[in-house]
Each structure stands twice: as C-alpha cells, then as structure tokens.
Amino acid sequence: MQFSVVLPVLGILLMLFSFSSLPPLAVAMIYGESEIALFLYTFFLTFLIGLLLWFPLRNIKTDLRPRDGFIITVLFWVVLGGMGSLPLLLMTDPAISVTDAVFESMSGLTTTGATILTNIDQLPKSILFYRQQLQWLGGMGIIVLAVAIMPMLGVGGMQLYRTETPGPIKDNKLTPRIKETAKALWLLYLTLTAVCALGYWLAGMNLFDAVSHSFSTIAIGGFSTHDASIGYFESPLINATATFFMLVAGINFALHFFAWRNKSAHHYWQDPEVRTYLLILLLVSLITVAGLYFSGTYDLADALDYGLFEVVSVATTTGYAASGFSAWPTFLPLLLFMTSFIGGCAGSTAGGMKVIRVLLIFKQGVRELRRLVHPNAVYSIKLGGKAVHSRVGEAVWGFFAAYVFLFAVMILAVMATGVDLTTAFSTVASSMNNLGPALGAAAENYSTLPDAAKWILCFAMLLGRLEIFTLLVLFTPTFWKY
C-alpha cells in the first residue's frame, strides 16, 4: 500500500466529511437544541484528523494504482462510518454504546436503514436530520462509486453493464472526465432529492419531514423521523409519492443522466435490466395485492395502497414501512423478503445482488436446459440482442458463489452469538442486501441483538454495499504481494 497516496486522499475525504456536521448544527440552532456543541465538536475533530493526514504528504505526487483504489474505497466507508458515529455517541439522551453508535452510522452510510434506536419521534430534530443526511451522503457516494470508480477497478455491476450491454451505457464515461461525471451525478442527485421533497410537501408532510424523507428515499435508505416510518402519516398520497421516487431511485442513475441530457425517456425501455426490473416489480405486486385482498386482510383500495408500497419498498431495498408487512398472511412476508435479494439496477442507490446479475444467471440457467435437449447445439447468452462474453458469465457466477458462501458463514456466526435462526437469517440477508427491516427478534429494531452480532452485521453491510469483491480482495494474500 502506498501510504503517501492513500493517507492524503483519506485526509481530504475526512475534511470534506466534517462539513456534514454543519447542516444538522444549523437545524439545532433553528430549534434551539443543546446539540449545537455536539456538532461543533464533531466538525472540528473530524476536520483536524483529516488535516493531520493530508498536510504532511500534500506535496507528494504519485500515480494512483488500482490496488490503492481498492484500499481507499474500503477505507472511505470504514473510516467515515466510524467518524459518522461521533454525534450519536456523544448524545446524552438517549445515551448509546460505541457498538450501537457505529452500527447506526454504518447502517446510515451504507443506506441499509437498520436501526438500534427506539422512540425516534422523541429524538432532537438535529439528530433526526443527521441520520437522514448520513443516508443521503452515503447514497451519493454509492452512485459515484458504482458509475465512476468501481469500473476503473474492474469490479461492480456497472463494469458488466458497460462492457456487455448495448445502448447509451456502452460509453465508457458519462462525461470525458471523472470529475465532470461526479459533478453531473451530484447535480442530478440533488435535483431528484429536491423534486422528491417538493412532492412530499405537496402530499401533506411538513417541511422538515419532507426534506428528511427525500434524503432517505432517493438514497434508498429507509431511515425515518418517526417510529412508524411512512405509516405515521396514514396517507395514500404520501405512500404513492414514496413509491414513485423509490421506483425511480432503483433505476441506473446513468440512464437518468442520459434522459436528462437528451431530453428523452425512450432508452429506459430499450434497457434489458430496466425491463426486467419493472417486470419483477409488476409480478410481485400482482401476487401481493391479490394475496392481501383474497385473504381478507384489506379491501381492494388498501390492498393496492399497501401492497404496491411495500413491494417497491422492499424490492428496491429501501425498507420503509407503511403497514408492517412481517405480519401479513401466508407466504407474503417471505416473498417480499426474497425480492430484496434481487434488489435494484446496477448504478443505482439500491442494494441486493442487482437485477443485471440475476438476469444473467437466469439466462445461463435457460441455456443449460436447452443444452440438455440439444447437447451439440451452440447457444449464446444475449442482452439486448448482443452476445455476452463468457468471462462475464464467470464473473457473475463467481459473485453469486461468494455471496451464498459468505451469507451462510455469517448466518452461522450470528447464530453463534445466541441469536435464533429466523432472526439470524433475516438480519444477515437484510444487512447484505442493505434492506434494513428484518424478521424475528429484529422485526421492530436491532437493539436487542448482542454486540458481537451487530459487528458481524456491520461487516455484512459493507460487503453488500461494496458488492463483495471490493472488500473481499483485501483479505487475499495476492493483493498484498508486490
């Protein structure tokens, strides 16, 4: 590892991250809360640590290698997850442990949405705003990482997308330079957030709730300013607004960029991943609404309202709640939970394995069935009418194998801390898929889990957010050999 390259970059990231303490500081001042000092302390400490890392090595000019990129990417989430816990750790009411503060911060930055906090409605406005802002910043970090950084390292769903999918995403960059790409994505992300906040406000939320929920909606995070989440508002219009923006945020942001630049939405339907994404949501929604209606759980209007909302919320790994789907009848809770394994599109803020990978696995499965009937025939896998290289299929199966193996290992690890199977399965799945809600003992929140289980789940969140290989490669001996 080139410390002379990695440390200054990490220092700059920390100095930039320190300014995230200022908006909640302003909220604390507006509402006259005592957390003003808390956020001031966080700002100066984070900025000082960043300055100490950057200043001594600021004049050293060395090219950044792919290996350094992996380290910086992982450290970005680990260090910011730790520093982001400071305001939560310094809270006096409620006072929480280091483990809980780091868990809440990591859950926010990775846009998982799992929480250990109770009585959220009673928390200071500045802390509530800070939690929502963590998810918003994490969501933007994910977009820049997925679209601009990870393809340079040769990993991530967007890497498969750009090399193998026809259409606008075939371009190697959205703009000629990564700096300009990041700027364009920030502007798009900010615009979507503002439109979402306006939509929530027009639908009936007050300004604070509208802005706060727009942060976690576009980031597909799921944090809320109320214990009852979106269900607090008891408004079909707010549910519909949330459903629409969750749906939009689950689509590849590069597609949004091209729609914005070209003033056209035609390419959305040309994209095989988006078509599959919408088809999955449609099929699961039809099953869910029918199940809720014919089981007598809701009348048709409520079945449509809650069914569509919860399907999009869980399938996109947002994790908002409007009615408590874990108590729904028959197989519906498990059906929704399983859709989170698919997640949203590559290059979006959604978690899960990504639709593009699931689509490729499905196509490979169909090909093997055809080979059983016609062993000598040559079948190629195609996306959008173009054959997919065999290397891509190998990468997808490698990802899937690693995902399943790590998933099983972490379930056993969480169970070893004393957690039951249902809770272990759902919390690990929820963390790796960056979903948030779980079943069993964590159906309400994660506060009752042992500290050891929470640290394992923090690792699971990072694995899911960094699409496994970005983090896993650091544990291989080959990576550290020069």
Walk me through what this model shows.
The protein is mostly helical and 482 residues long. Helices cover 64% and strands 1% of the residues. The protein contains 21 helices and two strands. Strands 1-2 form a two-stranded antiparallel sheet. Strand 1 and strand 2 form a beta hairpin. Helix 9 runs antiparallel to helix 11 (236-249), helix 14 runs antiparallel to helix 16 and helix 17 (355-373) packs across helix 18. Residues 158-172 have low confidence and may be disordered.
Question: What would you say about this model in short?
Answer:
This protein has 482 residues and is mostly helical. It contains 21 helices and two strands. The protein is globular, with a radius of gyration of 22 Å.
Write the layout of secondary structure elements.
Elements: H1 3-18, H2 22-30, H3 36-54, H4 66-83, H5 86-89, H6 98-109, H7 125-153, H8 157-164, H9 178-203, H10 207-218, H11 236-249, H12 253-262, H13 266-270, H14 272-294, H15 300-315, H16 332-342, H17 355-373, E1 382-383, E2 386-387, H18 390-416, H19 421-432, H20 451-465, H21 469-472
Helix pairs in contact: 1-3, 1-4, 2-3, 2-7, 4-6, 4-7, 6-7, 6-20, 7-8, 7-9, 7-10, 9-10, 9-11, 9-12, 11-15, 14-15, 14-16, 15-16, 17-18, 18-19, 18-20, 19-20
Spatial sequence of strands, sheet with the most strands: 1-2
Roughly how many Å is the radius of gyration? 22 Å
Task: Categorize the overall geometry.
Answer: globular
The tally of beta strands, per DSSP, is 2
Q: What is the structural class?
A: mainly alpha
Beta-strand residue fraction: under 5%
pLDDT < 50 stretches: 158-172
Distance between the termini: 9 Å
Number of helices: 21
Helix and strand pattern: HHHHHHHHHHHHHHHHHEEHHHH
Mean pLDDT: 87
Specify the helix fraction band.
Answer: 55-70%
Oligomer: single chain
Biggest sheet features: 2 strands, antiparallel
